Amino acid sequence: PKTIYLKDYQVPDYLVDSTDLHFELEPKATLVKSQLKIRRNPKAGQGLPPLLLDGIDLELLSIAIDGSILPEVSYQETLQGLSILVDKPEFILEIHNRINPEDNTSLEGLYLSNGMYCTQCEAEGFRKITFYPDRPDVMSKFTTTIVAPKDHPVLLSNGNQIDFGDCEDGRHFATWEDPFAKPSYLFALVAGDLENVEDTFTTSSGREVKLQIFTEAKNIGKCEHAMRSLKKAMSWDEEVYGREYDLDIFMIVAVDHFNMGAMENKGLNIFNSACVLASPETATDSAFQRIESIVGHEYFHNWSGNRVTCRDWFQLSLKEGFTVFRDAEFSADMNSRAVKRIEDVSLLRTNQFAEDAGPMSHPIRPDSYIEISNFYTLTVYEKGAEVVRMLHTLLGKEKFRKGSDLYFERHDGSAATCEDFILSMEDANQVNLTQFRHWYSQAGTPILEVTDSFDQATGRYSLKVSQSCPTRANQDKSLPLHIPIKIGLLDVDGNNSILNNEGDIEEVLEVTQPEQLFEFSGFREKPLPSLLRDFSAPVKVRYPYTGKQLIFLMRNDSDTFNRWDASQRLAFMALTQLQQDYRSGEALQLQPELIEAYRDVLKDSTLDPALVAEILRLPSEQSVAEMNDLIDAEAIVVARDFALKTLATALAPELLQRYTALDHQKPYSPNAKDIAERSLKNTCLSYLAATEKDDALNIVQKQFETAGNMTDSAAALSALINYGSAPKVDSAIQEFYQRWKDDTQVVELWLGLQSSSARNGTLANIKNLIKHPSFEIKNPNKVRAVLGGFANRNFKQFHKEDGSGFFFIAEQVVMLDKINPQIAARLVVPITRWQKYSDDLSGKMREALQGILDSGGLSKDVFEVVSKSIN
Ligand code: HT7
Ligand code: ZN
């Protein structure tokens, strides 16, 4: 397969001023007629080169230019699409082709989900619908007519409906017109037997927008939360960014078969059902929060993505990094800011740091790719958002807003680059971000080594910061980055010291040099630094904290994020020691001071319960693995299990007390306070279950039987699955399934809880689950629940020393690749990080990868991920 390079970017040869599409929907033979008004791009140079159109899996029926059918000598069908000879600078191109939505299991292009027609065009799915210059810098005004049988009563596309009616042959039709020029990746079509809930939103300038959420009839009761979230997002974008919605209608459609979370098609967002549908009985608190954030994310794309789009796919982080930053701030404003930050940083540190240290490591603006779908990554999204956040931190709220206003003003209606974004920030504020730009072109997680010294005689305190960035062999030497480090300095009483003449108690240090000294004066005693407050940069900070100092920070730091971070550092220290002791055959033990620190937190009723839960939760095995240079999976599992059980036993009375106090039956509401209380209650429950004592397991069983909402019910089931006695586990699993078997989202949860069970025998159970009637290999949510749950969320069973986990996943990847390459390429990732594992496991992983390569006939998607890892 061919590698595409950013350096090879060229402007398009031809532009498409308007695109008229006509669909006659049939499951196996949909007819697509397109009429394109094409003109030579004045910016593209002289002459009339052939017109190259992308097209995959299309049956070409006819091509006409200005009404005359083209003879075969005037065009050529290629592997990528069509090459057409052109003899005039402007013309109407009309193409007829046929496609087969029913057999389209890749879920890109036009496909069927439970009988409903729907589309997914980002990044390069439109070429599976018709021949087209399928690149984001070709923007066109679309008009779409859909003809379908009447058993598909709802016919939707982008923009406003301008016509509808009956056809003579008993079918019906609808025509939609989108007044905004857009790239093909934002095109959408939906046709099905759907119901909708409707509401309105009045924009700040007084326009009334119709809001509709479409689902299958059985799910119509699950739309309320998404609708509420949408309205909140619309208000928030007006208040915080001054962005108003621009069409008269905004539609969301829920579909069960979807490769990602959702898609921001202009005026017609398409959502994975799991990211839009919720009711208290069926959805957990995290599902409610995920829905709010994804509804916000897709809505915010209307400006950061649609009104201003990307010039090419290397610029993906321009829209995704910025939009993730926007949705994170939205969620922080709607819920607990500190907890949202902790959750996002945990994800980044555990999974993005691992990606950046692995074989697919890339900058947030990659330089090359084989398959762009493989670059919808945590690096582009989450690290990209951190880069935008750093700009926000460096510039401050007002200047950042000035920069974003200028960016939207300058680039509205066009396709921009990451460089354009930075330039707007610079020009709006007369700042120089030359060095900051390296964040866009350099991969790897920077490491900051921090040391300090104190001169008692002068009262001077200095912090020395050195930066480095371990990169993979094939990367050029890295350049020093511009890194904002927010700090505070704590005195012996745990109060923030004054840092400068302005009386600030917090400062953002701007690190720009490989090594830099920062000095502070006026101290009577050496302060304790609180570094990288609020995680002000996506870096690793190394400072030689002692256990005592970390406990002090945990108790006193005014920065909530760093209070949590101190607990994480402390836990990592303990887990590292336990791993060492296990390897050298020493008896395992947990420091009493650590247990007491946890006890204090648990008993502290002044702390936000959600924060208590976050502090109590031990770092996952995966995040411990990421911190280690060489991963010894068995030692990690033993160390963490030991720490968990020891804490559970030592803190059992306090855990029970806190659990009991929080176990009140009040009507469910997904508000921040109640979510926080449930989070702590269920963290206590899972610790109690880990004692494996009868009385604790009875509490779990009781919660399972009496829970009034899915958060409590799922937490109890999870605790039972991991710690309950065999017969009780089996009956709970069966009982739960019988109750919820008709609810797709709950069944996905049920599958996921089983596949992530740390119990021995889980792989055998998974082999049964993939034969269970509820499992469907063509449905990505089911694959993510069962196979993804095993490979990504079951560290212990996936990393069995005989390699059985790796070989099983490899086998599934090969099979899945024939059905859905995007999903297969994601599933294989956990096996590709073999280089960091100790010999026994890394050999098995390589063997599994080689097996995939040897199977032959791989998609570009899987080929890219596997070959980059093995070579
Ligand atoms: N912008 C959307 C990307 C997306 C996508 C990409 C590849 C394959 C399938 C996909 N579905 C949606 C999602 C988002 O970031 O909003
Ligand atoms: Zn997005």
Brief write-up:
By secondary structure, the protein is α+β, with helices and mostly antiparallel strands. The protein has 27 helices and 31 strands. It has an eight-stranded mixed beta sheet with strand order 6-5-9-3-2-12-15-14, with no helix packed on it.
- Structural class label: alpha+beta
Contiguous runs where pLDDT drops below 50 for at least 5 residues = none
Number of strands: 31
Based on Cα principal axes, name the global outline.
Answer: globular
Architecture of the domain at 1-193, CATH level 2?
Sandwich
Share in β-strands = 15-25%
**Helicity range:** 40-55%
Q: From the alpha-carbon coordinates, what is the Rg to the nearest angstrom? A: 28 Å
What's the mean pLDDT score?
A: 97
How is the biggest beta sheet arranged?
8 strands, mixed
Lateral arrangement of strands in the main beta sheet: 6-5-9-3-2-12-15-14
Terminal residue distance: 15 Å
Number of helices: 27
Per CATH, the superfamily of the domain at 1-193 is tricorn interacting facor f3 domain
Question: Which ligands does the model contain, each kind named once?
Answer: (3S)-3-amino-4-(1H-indol-3-yl)butanoic acid, zinc ion
Q: Say what oligomer this is.
A: single chain
* CATH class wording of the domain at 1-193: Mainly Beta
CATH fold assignment of the domain at 1-193: Immunoglobulin-like
